[in-house]
Amino acid sequence: MRVKNAQKNLKFGKTYIMGILNVTPDSFYDGGKFFSIKAAVERAKKMIAQGADIIDIGGESTRPGSLRVSSEEEKKRILPVIEAIRKENKEIIISVDTYKSEVAKCSINAGADMINDISGGLFEPEILNIVAQNDVYYVIMHIKGTPETMQKNPCYSEKGVVNDIIEYFYERIKVAESYGINRDKIILDPGIGFGKTLEHNIEILRDLDKLKQFKLPLLIGTSRKSMIGNILNKQPAERLYGTLATVALSIIKGVDIVRVHDVAETRDVVLVLDAIVKSKQENI
To answer: b or e along 148-158 (b: 16 or more beta carbons within 10 Å of the residue's beta carbon)?
Structure first.
């Protein structure tokens, strides 16, 4: 049975902060730091205290070139963490970063409110049924290829990466709705770094406002990624300020959720930009 929580409805008159919680040994920035249940739960509590609105739990690294893990292993990593966080905090929105239908089903039963699917339902279409049946939020992300192959010479049509992503979103939204997913539960993520070159990522950030045509919430995840490292020539540990620059630009461009490792620093950026940019905007 699913843990019964009060219905959580996001109201997009503000920018939501999604804190990243990688319960993995091999994520590109914090792999291994929060691999134990105790460390993961303490990390979640700290991010919530710092101002996170959503905790995004991942049990499989999707960094470029990463290898897949089984559903059983992924569940073993994340389900105890979901249950422990939910036991302590009934209000926080819990997101699970997975494309596997079985993992999504068990995560929702354990108390998750959102499924963050890097494949937009392409890897395991059954996940769309699971989301629809449980009426949880669903993040449709754009990816070119798979995590193992996505950075091997990614290329797009002559229309450009943003227009290709727009076409992808039109198709995936239509499919999601055909499975019974409510449109008001769909969130879009252009997938920075998932089958994109540095130039592609820059073009996406420059033209983020074009994705507002769907009148759906937008999520962006740039935190400490290689695009920032390539611009600054810095390793992940030194990419905080570069990340904050992309967060600020994204808010100006109309993004609704920022997915980050550094919640406290991001919160300052969000509060200032929201006061300037979103104080008089209408909710979606």
So the answer is: eebbeebebee
Percent of the chain with pLDDT over 70: 90
Model confidence pLDDT, tens digit, residues 168-218: 999 999 999 999 999 999 999 999 999 999 999 999 999 999 999 999 999
Q: Which of 249, 204, 201, 240 is nearest to 29 (CA)?
A: 240
Q: What is the domain count for the chain?
A: 1
Please tell me which residue in 172, 196, 225, 239 is annotated as part of the active site.
Answer: 225
3-62 pLDDT, tens digit per residue, is: 444 457 898 889 999 999 999 875 555 555 666 888 889 999 999 999 999 999 998 877
Asked if 18 and 260 count as a contact pair (C-beta separation under 8 A), the reply is yes
> What beta strand segments (E) does the chain contain?
16-22, 54-58, 93-97, 114-117, 137-141, 186-189, 219-220, 257-260
**Tokens of residue 272, six digits:** 């200032």
pTM of the predicted protein model: 0.92
**Catalytic residue status for 259:** yes
Q: Which phi and psi angles does 233 have, rounded to 5°?
A: 60, 50
40 in a structural domain: yes
Instruction: Check the CA dihedral 34-39-40-46 and report its sign.
Output: negative
Q: Which domain holds residue 73?
A: 16-277
Strands in 45-179 per DSSP E: 54-58, 93-97, 114-117, 137-141
- In the block, tokens 């499919």 appear at 175
Q: Which residues on neighbouring strands pair with residue 22, listed in sequence order?
A: 58
Is position 225 annotated as part of the catalytic site? yes
Strands (E), 12-126: 16-22, 54-58, 93-97, 114-117
Active-site residue identified among 43, 75, 172, 259: 259
Would you say residue 7 lies in a domain? Answer: no
